[in-house]
Write a structure and sequence with these properties.
By secondary structure, the chain is α/β, with parallel strands linked by helices. It has 9 helices and 9 strands. It has a 7-stranded mixed sheet with strand order 1-9-8-7-2-3-4. It has a two-stranded antiparallel sheet with strand order 5-6. α8 links the parallel β8 and β9. α1 packs across α9, α5 crosses α7 and α6 packs parallel to α9. The radius of gyration is 19 Å and the shape is globular. The two termini are 18 Å apart.
Length: 282
């Protein structure tokens, strides 16, 4: 596949990837399911992530200042290539817990959230609308599994593309009261390194897709590799990692974990090329 020959695309085992792709193409769309992270995977990494949308929005300035302090403290830990996931996890729990506690101090409403997204720098990757449309028109399930804010994800997709019925979003959803004001979050924290522990793995989501034995998984964190642990009947699995920052320090590690690593790319071009090849078999 020519798209894999680009200089910013790295393939760990070319023979393995070509074998997996050949099976996916031969099996076609009816056997395919897709599982993807959202922030910096579906969205352009140069724009705002879902929590940044809240920080950029209309909340008081002290909220932004405190949220930035948390990010400055914990983000360097999240992306440190010299720390293990086990070492990072307690810090991620601290970060998300403190971030949610901070947000609950301010009167965030559904109406404000809509306007925050509309005025934010959050952007879907170039080619993402085509990606969504292709999956929907071929009835291919898309699980969006995010450590971000689920309500922001829904707004970004609805405002910039289409929120289709083949999409299933698992994320940190806000609990609003009857007046539409934030009172908390609906479920246990999802952070970047516990995506294998969420309730989706205990639900019937993956068992209901047991006939879809080919999985395309996309993420920008090593924790994203655990998103589809509940899919147990797979015959082919292709993992695509988007490496957006600290490329020099992290490339070797990402190549050792992901089948394909795409560096500093603001588009969905490689993914669309792969999906188009699978759909071409129909």
């Amino acid at each position: 596949m020519e798209c894999l020959n680009k200089p910013h695309v790295h393939v760990r085992d070319r023979e393995h990837v070509e074998r997996i792709l050949a099976k996916m193409v031969a099996d076609g769309p009816n056997k395919l399911q897709v599982c993807s992270d959202f922030d910096s995977t579906i969205t352009n990494y140069k724009g705002a992530c879902t929590y940044n949308v809240l920080e950029e929005g209309g909340l008081p300035e002290e909220y932004k200042e405190e949220a930035y302090k948390l990010r400055d403290k914990y983000f360097v830990i999240e992306v440190d290539p010299n720390m293990t996931i086990e070492e990072k996890t307690p810090y991620m729990v601290e970060w998300w817990t403190k971030a949610h506690e901070l947000l609950m101090k301010y009167p965030l409403s559904k109406a404000m959230l809509h306007n925050m997204v509309a005025n934010s720098s959050a952007r879907l990757r170039d080619g993402c609308i085509r990606f969504f449309d292709s999956l929907h028109s071929n009835d291919i399930p898309l699980l969006i599994f995010s450590a971000g804010v689920g309500d922001v994800i829904q707004e970004v997709i609805a405002q910039q593309s289409t929120l289709y019925d083949n999409m299933h979003i698992v994320s940190n959803f806000i609990d609003f009261d009857e007046n539409g004001t934030l009172i908390g979050f609906k479920s246990d924290i999802i952070h970047v390194y516990n995506k294998n522990e969420n309730a989706v793995h205990d639900s019937d989501y993956f068992p209901n897709l047991s006939h879809r034995t080919n999985l395309l998984l996309m993420g920008d964190s090593l924790g994203d590799l655990q998103m589809a642990n509940g899919a147990e009947s797979l015959e082919a699995k292709l993992t695509i990692g988007f490496l957006n920052t600290r490329v020099t320090e992290s490339l070797a590690l990402y190549i050792s974990k992901y089948d394909i690593v795409i560096c500093e790319d603001e588009t969905m071009d490689i993914v669309n090329n792969i999906v188009s090849n699978i759909l071409a078999s129909v």
